[in-house]
Amino acid sequence: MRKNVLVLISLIIVLILAQLSKSLDPYFYQILLFFGINTILAVSLNLINGFTGQFSIGHAGFMAAGGYLSAALSVYQGEKIINYLAFLPKDFAQGLVFFVFVLIGGIFAGLLGILIGIPTLRLKGDYLAIATLGFGEIIRVIIYNMEIVGGPRGFPGIPKYTDITWVAFWSFICILVVYRLIHSSHGRVIISIREDETASEAMGVNTTFYKVFSFSVGAFFAGIAGGLFAHYLMMLHPSSFTFMRSVEILLMIVLGGLGSITGSVFGAFVLTVLPEALRGFAHLRLIIYSLALIIMMLVKPLGLMGNKEVSLYRLIKKFAKDRE
Question: What residues pair up with 236 in beta bridges, in sequence order?
């Protein structure tokens, strides 16, 4: 009961801080917003790679699927539905429609995760990585050839509904869902697959089901991140979801620590802020960026956090105890 109350308090604090951050300089506001989107992507991929022990590098494909679908719904149906909801305050109607469209995009990405996961997750190691990479590129190429969403020209005219409050809300939901899943009985099964899949099968665990399940949950949140991304930039292009975007998300969880939700957040923060901090070095930027990552991997091969967590519950409890 206490943990549920702390979760609610944490959500309220996150939303209040999100509202206060709107007064930031637009440049820093955008960095903070992209950090939130990257957090969703990193935490969801860590569920697949870090906790389940699979090797997926097609996360950008699910982000593209969810982003394009939610954007297409907003462009082609958004105003019509908002007009049907004229009895509601306009801001509330827009927020409700946006929430539903982003959720539909996430569900679509999750279903794609199931369809792709069933045949591919029977593979292991490098073969799985190549298969997920291939499916991610297939999704991008299909979008590239769909005129209804602009094809190679890109997809403009997307309404700008995303703000820091929505990003903070979905980041919180993603972290909470993954945390509660991993600390449940199903989570212990998922971790057992990572530790020794053969032993899990010998104990009667349906490893294929749990691998597909975690894959679909990760894909769902990648689709949510895509919807938020689309409704902030107001323009989507297939080049935003290439193989390198998947690698960038993978680097976040490797840098932060495989099997650590806190590490995913730290990794997302570092790889969101570091490229911006190095902009002043012009042509040396990519060299410094790469060297920093190499040094970090040499010094901390298990990532910034390894598989450890920083417990928000313990921090709040310790703070409350110190105040007494």
Answer: 155
- Cα 233 to Cα 37: distance, rounded to the nearest angstrom: 12
Neighbours of 295 (CB within 10 A): 10
Sign of CA dihedral 49, 53, 58, 64: negative
Token pair for residue 17? 């801080």
Q: So what's the pLDDT on residue 254?
A: 87
**Crossing angle between the packed helical segments 59-73 and 26-46, to the nearest 10 degrees:** 120
What's the predicted TM-score (pTM) here? 0.90
Helix-strand-coil percent breakdown of the chain, rounded to 5?
80, 0, 20
First to last CA, the chain: 21
- Residue 236, H or E segment: strand 235-236
What pLDDT score does 318 carry? 58
The encoded tokens of residue 106 equal 């996430």
Q: For 214, phi and psi rounded to 5 degrees?
A: -65, -35
d(CA 187, CA 20): 35
Tokens linked to 113: 């995760």
- The mean per-residue pLDDT over the stretch 267-275 comes to 88
| Closest residue by Cα to residue 260 from 188, 319, 175, 192 | 175
Angstrom distances, CA of residue 8 to CA of 2, 4, 92, 313:
10, 6, 22, 12
pLDDT at 302 exceeding the cut of 90: no
Residue type, 36: G
Residue 59 contacts residue 244 (beta carbons within 8 Å): no
Q: How many helices (DSSP H) and strands (DSSP E) are in the chain?
A: 14, 2
Distance, in Å, from the CA atom of 165 to the CA atom of 171, rounded to the nearest integer, reads 10
Please, how many CA atoms are within 13 Å of residue 177, restricted to the half-sphere of its CB? 16
pLDDT in tens, 21-65: 777 788 888 999 999 999 999 999 999 999 998 888 889 999 999
HSE-CB at 292 with a 13 A cutoff on CA atoms is 17
Question: Contact at 8 Å (CB) between 49 and 178?
Answer: no
d(CA 114, CA 288): 39
